[in-house]
User: What shape does this take?
Amino acid sequence: MVTTSVTPPEQPAGTRRPLYRHPRAVAALRALTALGAGLIAYASFPPRPLWWLMPVAFGLLWIALHGRRARAGFGLGLLFGLGQLLPLLHWTGIYVGPGPWLALVLLEALFIGLAGLAITYVGTLPLAPLWAAGLWVGAEALRARWPFDGFSWGKVAFGQPEGAFLPLVAIGGTALLGFAVVLAGFGVGELARRIGTRTRGPRRLVWPVLFAALPPIAGLIAGPLVTPHENAGTATVAVIQGNVPRLGLDFNAQRRAVLDNHVKRTLQLAQDVAAGRQQQPDLVIWPENSSDIDPFQDPIAFAELNQAAAAIKAPIAVGAVLSLDSTKPTNTVLLWQPGQGATDRYTKQHIQPFGEYMPLRSVIRLFSSYVDQVSWDFQPGDKPGVFAMGPARVGIATCYEVAFDDIVTDTVRSGAQILAIPSNNATFGLSEMTFQQLAMSRVRAVEHGTAVLVAATSGVSAIIGPDGSVTQSTGQFVPDALVGRVPLRSTTTLATSQGSAPEWFLTGLGIAGLALAAARTRRSLSNR
Assistant: This one.
């Protein structure tokens, strides 16, 4: 038997493969694209009103991921997560150094890396962007629950407090809103990829066009349909921002001055009401930690709260730290009635790891000397808080809790007609944190069709309409009082009634895509 070999023609001397086709150059370009896409995703978040950049970011991510294997998909997803979260969460390390900030970002970016891995697996399926968007929702659902009860900061939905997609949150919650943005971005990416590779023709472009166009169109159509209307009267509300004496982690050491500041600003508002310069409020919201001195243990604090309530002639929701158990204090909001004192209370259910309690204390101490500044662990509550305040039923979600779907939904389902978000952002200085949290509150307003009152010790405090618009707001680190009339609602949105069902459905869609991809792989192997 004679065999012959064919030698490919040699390239002319001095010629090389073009750099743009070199495997390492292509890999580097994909990595830079994924990292740049993450930076664009960060830029879409408030305080910048650039919500439309988020689909652009996901379009670039889709192009970077297309045709990659699982390991590369994980790396590219990780780079996207680092690009987005490193600047977005920079405020977590302002006073404690880069260690906790970098550790948090890396942990959260790992979830995005897993999403990138899974997306590459379904990337060759028909309707691939649909399955991939469901997988993204699933990754966000996972990191919102684990570890340490999850961390939802940086969810796609929280970068959409305005714009074409926002009304969808009233139909399917943050899961549907995030799904729509990601699907539109992946559709744009697939459309650009097919045009760029000359894969054209109406049939080849129809699905990418639909994926890119239908989500924002659906949002625009849904807008007038989900716009809430007053149906249970109105209430005149007041939001007090007393301010703190100085920045930094020693905020809690200033607790007497902080309480005095909030009493003083409430008394000033009472004088303005008496003089006719302001309306008489039906209810008043103070921030989280506005009375870090337990009024049941300190007679001076008790007297000051009585004085403030009597002067303003309205119930006050007071953020307090109660020390009924010296080893397990509680972060509590007290309902303080004129002439009656505390008549109701809500204890924060979703307490903040590494801030209000310290998991893995002995391990964390090896990396940060700040660990022992959290000298005790707070005890969480176990039920929603809804206060009867004047003509309104006011639901309470304290600070960090606004980031968690279940907390806010359970509060509205318990009968809240207004949502109050008492917050303490003083320990994060003049960072973007307070604007990111304000954006979450705006999204919650539309999601549940309710006005939202944000009361922060140092700002930004705000009154938000049920359509997500900020009708009044304060500056940062200034004392102020906001007074306005807000609508009361006795009906709920589809998002409220459905709860987590859309999230489970969309996550299931992504898992179904993985199952289809696995079945296709098995068929391919069996046919060899």
